[in-house]
């Protein structure tokens, strides 16, 4: 019997939720694909049609969270009328809320990420791209509305905000204060700084400075090195009695 796309999505979601439960109970290393499949009510062979490895389950849930976050933001009445600073802060807070039921699972994600940073970066690409697109849309809308000036390297700027979000999550995982008050205070201070950076296009100016320094210093050194190699080459040819071209 042919399985519909809706049924596939439901099975995929059950597997992700089962992975959260099993990994939270046993830890990533002790969790098995068989147990996750059983928890989801799926055959032990069928799970591999959706997720070939435990790592893909782990990072698949990260991508699922980004979809949840986007849906939650879209459900907020008049969200498009928020200021950019308010939108970005709401994004970070919604991310924290989305991870709250799976906080211990997120700790396993961080452990695996720091254990294998290169591989984890590749696995997290889907989640990262989804998040970055949300931030890019917010930045582009703010520029179009004249709220902030043009920003050089919009994709890079959105990627930096993903890094900031990751740092916030790491801080939150270590926050033992009541109702995570320390995270809230840190976030308020950080967002005030970020708002100032965006309003002055400081990141773009920094990128222009780096580009200028690269052109004027690095490239000039490379040019001098090229000239030195050419001079050495000519001397070697003369020493060997070969006429210069």
UniProtKB/TrEMBL annotation:
Positions of the HTH tetR-type domain = 9-69
Q: Does the keyword Transcription apply?
A: yes
What InterPro entries does UniProt report for this protein, alphabetically? DNA-bd_HTH_TetR-type_CS, Homeodomain-like_sf, HTH-type_TetR-like_transc_reg, HTH_TetR, Tet_transcr_reg_TetR-rel_C_sf, TetR_C_23
The Swiss-Prot or TrEMBL record marks DNA binding at 32-51
Q: Which UniProt keywords apply?
A: DNA-binding, Repressor, Transcription, Transcription regulation
What GO annotations for molecular function exist for this entry?
DNA-binding transcription factor activity; transcription cis-regulatory region binding
Q: Which Pfam families does the entry link to?
A: TetR_C_23, TetR_N
What protein does this entry describe?
TetR/AcrR family transcriptional regulator
The organism encoding this protein is: Leeia aquatica
């Amino acid at each position: 019997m042919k399985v519909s796309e809706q049924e596939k999505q439901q099975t995929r979601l059950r597997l992700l939720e089962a992975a959260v439960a099993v990994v939270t109970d046993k830890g990533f290393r002790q969790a098995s694909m068989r147990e996750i499949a059983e928890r989801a009510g799926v055959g032990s062979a069928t799970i591999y049609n959706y997720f070939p490895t435990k790592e893909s389950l782990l990072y698949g849930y990260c991508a699922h969270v980004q979809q949840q976050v986007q849906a939650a933001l879209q459900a907020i009445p008049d969200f498009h009328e928020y200021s950019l600073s308010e939108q970005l802060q709401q994004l970070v807070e919604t991310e924290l809320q989305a991870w709250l039921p799976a906080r211990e699972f997120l700790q396993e994600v961080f452990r695996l990420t720091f254990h294998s940073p290169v591989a984890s970066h590749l696995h997290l690409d889907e989640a990262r791209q989804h998040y970055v697109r949300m931030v890019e849309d917010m930045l582009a809308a703010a520029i179009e509305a004249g709220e902030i000036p043009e920003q050089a390297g919009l994709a890079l700027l959105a990627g930096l905000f993903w890094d900031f979000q990751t740092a916030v999550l790491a801080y939150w995982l270590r926050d033992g204060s009541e109702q995570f008050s320390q995270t809230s205070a840190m976030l308020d201070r950080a967002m005030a700084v970020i708002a100032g950076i965006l309003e002055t296009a400081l990141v773009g100016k920094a990128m222009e400075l780096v580009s200028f320094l690269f052109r004027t210093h690095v490239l000039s050194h490379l040019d001098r090195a090229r000239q030195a190699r050419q001079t050495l080459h000519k001397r070697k040819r003369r020493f060997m009695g070969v006429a210069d071209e």
